[in-house]
Amino acid sequence: MPERFPVQIEGRDLELSNLDKLMYPAAGFTKGEVVDYYTRVAPVLLPHLRGRALTRIRYPNGVDGAHFFEKNAPGGTPSWVRLETLPVPGSTKARETIDFVVVDELATLVWVANLASLELHTPQWRIGEHPDLMVVDLDPGAPAGLQECCAVAMLMRDRLGEDGLSAYPKTSGKKGMQLCVPISGMQDSEAVSGYAKRVAEELSARVPGSITAKMARAIRPGKVFIDWSQNAAAKTTVAPYSLRALAEPTASTPLTWEEVAAMALGDEPARQFGAAEVLERVDAYGDLLEDLLRPGPALP
To answer: Which parts of the chain are coiled coil (predicted)?
Structure first.
């Protein structure tokens, strides 16, 4: 296979390179397979990326090599890639603004994948708008794991339901999971974070042996940390269907509530899903997170 070859996607010209390079050596999963996965999952992934500033985590030499976070558009970015210049207060690189890449179309997604951007992370807001999502990140402290997260997810779902909110579950692709809640887009990130924190603290007070809403790592072993802080404007969360950089090519996978209940009760093994399984699930279910694309109610 040639090292570099040109392709045309929906009228856009780009060049793919080093497709034989192993990105997940233990699994024998190549960069070509990464590009293929993102191309095939694009119909359900792209709607969740459109209009959002993208943070990429790049692994130029695969998951066993060095990696770096990239928010700024890299040198050589094609002229047709959508860029949005946004302020980044408190940037670690002391930048006032960053030219963010916005993945609105398949060609941009393939270009991003070809840069070995294995992980794709987005904020809870679209450019120029207030947050249209609230995210509740459930992070287990060993020996707690995904099974315990599923049990907490059901408590959180029911509590949010009391306030008229609908929660949609997905695995993180690593060890925990997230609940995604469509909201009105009329409140700022401080209001969203404040509400998420109140609910997290309420559940933590109700089940203090199993749940914590505090960041301190010392108190997290054996508990599920409800991370409400993901709703801060500067924070990002792994996008649905994004690959994760573990030994195997797992992905952040939308679940049904029936699956969450079965995992919580131990009727099904609580586990993360691989890229091939995610594509099979998309064929079977379509996008289980499609409801996130429509505005939800205002937070109380």
So the answer is: none
CB 96 within 8 A of CB 30: no
Q: Is 128 exposed, middle or buried, given 0-12, 13-18 or 19+ CB atoms closer than 10 A?
A: exposed
pLDDT (tens digit per residue) in 227-249: 999 999 999 999 999 999 999 99
DSSP character at residue 131: B
CB 200 within 8 A of CB 213: yes
Q: Is the pLDDT of residue 90 over 90?
A: no
| Alpha carbon separation from 21 to 60, 155, 171 (Å, rounded) | 9, 44, 27
**Rounded to whole angstroms, how far apart are CA atoms 72 and 88?**
11
DSSP state of 49: H
Alpha helices in the chain (DSSP H): 31-49, 106-114, 146-162, 189-206, 257-265, 275-285
Rounded to two decimals, the pTM is 0.96
Residue among 56, 172, 163 at smallest CA distance from 180: 172
Question: Phi/psi of residue 190, each to 5°?
Answer: -65, -40
Domains of the chain plus CATH, in order, are 4-122 (3.90.920.10), 133-293 (3.30.70.3300)
CA-closest candidate to residue 22, choices 119, 116, 113: 116
Cα dist. 78→7, 104, 229 in Å? 13, 14, 34
Eight-class DSSP state of 292: G
* Residue 124 in this model has a pLDDT that exceeds 80: yes
In the block, tokens 């999971």 appear at: 177
215 residue type, one letter: M
| Distance (Å, whole) CA 170 – CA 260 | 9
